[in-house]
Design brief:
Layout: E1 11-22, E2 25-36, E3 40-44, H1 51-59, E4 66-71, E5 74-75, E6 86-89, H2 101-110, H3 118-131, H4 147-159, E7 165-169, H5 177-194, E8 197-202, H6 205-211, E9 214-219, E10 222-227, H7 229-234, H8 239-244, E11 249-259, E12 262-267, E13 272-276, E14 286-291, E15 297-299, E16 307-316, E17 320-327, E18 331-338, H9 339-345, E19 353-357, E20 363-367
Parallel strand pairs: 3-8, 3-9, 6-7, 7-8
Antiparallel strand pairs: 1-2, 1-4, 4-5, 9-10, 11-12, 11-14, 12-13, 14-20, 15-19, 16-17, 16-19, 17-18
The protein binds adenosine-5'-triphosphate (ATP).
GO molecular function, one term: ATP binding
Family: Belongs to the ABC transporter superfamily. Spermidine/putrescine importer (TC 3.A.1.11.1) family.
Protein name: Spermidine/putrescine import ATP-binding protein PotA
Length: 369
């Protein structure tokens, strides 16, 4: 199987200073990075940041304005989509509703010249159906399939000719939440089984976090940071990434003092908080102190260094309870309390007075950009 560290894998795809302009819009700004063979990579970012453009340049649906695309070691910048060893799964599956499931999946194979033997096509279609757990559904019509099943047919069609890369453009967007979660697990399992490189575009951070080996966080045509879901969550390079990967609380201020990896943030109201720094920052820099909701403790009793707050809202989430609490000066904070911790401390109701505290090493000092 592929190496866990993407950096150690042979590259299946490369962007080399790949830029795409649409008039004045810089949709991709000198993208320069590689995708490891067998990797599950996601492009994550808000609408319009250039995710789809990056994917479409890999697919061959867009030609870069400047720069190059390499696939499997070959320059393919002007090579049309149908000659590239890639397939794409679209948000709207683009299936032929009047054809059977099997005919939809085998359609591309039957277009090949010379046309492969029917038995050979049938064998590949059956294998693809098995991979997406739809064995026996071949004779059905598309309109007889549920949304989730249609999604799997689209996947089967995309893997039937064994592409080197499968490109997925918001493939689960049309599904309801529960089905999405199930399909996320299935997609990940399928990718592991096939060993094919998957490149996913999504604006859903949960989706990217749960499936990817590596995530590229994009903004305005550029990659702000790329790394494993864990690395991005624990070591975001700036506030933008911390905000996009997981939830966080941000206290704005400036870097008042620093010593080694620790610093002190002074808020506008003059309060000082200690935090850790992963990047070198100069004293006086505008920064945010980022504290993840699960790093904050909520208590009834005051203790050293704790901040007095009022409970505003409580949402029971099963294993966790999410509280919104308000500090008179610092504003609102999100606190995630584990079931066991809540059992120990007792729960809180809206209107209750409470105290929040966190360990200084759990707070990160981040620049804006
Ligand atoms: P979304 O999540 O909304 O799909 P995205 O991150 O995939 O967004 P892109 O579709 O890559 O973003 O678009 C990047 C930028 O390029 C946007 O500003 C968009 O308006 C612009 N753009 C994309 N395609 C075209 C086009 N064919 N013509 C003109 N502008 C385009």
């Amino acid at each position: 199987s592929a190496s866990a560290d993407p950096a150690e894998r042979p590259l299946i795809a490369q962007f080399r200073a790949a830029t795409k302009r649409y008039g004045d819009v810089l949709a991709a700004d000198a993208l320069d990075f590689g995708i490891g063979s067998g990797e599950f990579l996601s492009f994550l970012g808000p609408s319009g940041c250039g995710k789809t453009t990056a994917l479409r340049m890999l697919a061959g649906f867009e030609t870069p304005t400047s720069g190059d695309i390499y696939l499997d070691g070959e320059r393919v910048t002007e090579v049309p989509a149908y000659l590239r060893p890639v397939n794409m799964v679209f948000q709207h599956y683009a299936l032929f509703p009047h054809l059977t499931v099997a005919d939809n999946i085998g359609y591309g194979l039957m277009q090949r010249r010379p046309r492969p033997a029917r038995a050979e096509v049938a064998r590949k279609v059956d294998r693809a159906l098995e991979m997406v757990r739809l064995s026996g559904f071949g004779p059905r019509r598309i309109w007889e399939m549920s949304g989730g099943q249609q999604q799997r047919v689209a996947l089967a069609r995309a893997i039937v000719n064994e592409p080197k890369i499968l490109l997925l453009d918001e493939p689960l967007a049309a599904l309801d939440r529960k089905l999405r979660r199930e399909m996320q697990i299935e997609l990940q399992t399928l990718q592991r089984q096939l060993g094919i490189t998957f490149v996913l575009v999504t604006h859903d951070q949960e989706e990217a976090l749960s499936m990817s080996d590596r995530i590229c966080i994009m903004r305005a045509g550029r990659i702000v940071q790329s790394g494993s879901p864990n690395a991005l969550y624990d070591h975001p390079i700036n506030r933008y990434v911390a905000d996009f990967v997981g939830k966080s609380n941000f206290l704005n201020g400036r870097l008042a003092s620093l010593s080694g990896k620790n610093g002190q943030v002074e808020t506008a109201s003059g309060q000082r908080f200690t935090g850790r720094m992963h990047t070198e920052l100069a004293q006086g820099t505008p920064v945010s102190l980022s504290i993840r909701p699960e790093q904050i403790g909520l208590a009834h009793m005051a203790q050293d260094g704790a901040l007095p707050v009022t409970v505003i809202n409580r949402i029971f989430l099963g294993e966790h309870t999410e509280y919104l609490v308000r500090h008179a000066v610092l504003g609102d904070l999100l606190v995630l309390v584990a079931r066991q911790a809540e059992a120990n401390e007792g729960s809180f109701a809206p209107g209750d007075a409470a105290h929040v505290h966190w360990a200084p090493q759990a707070a990160l000092i981040l620049p804006e950009d």
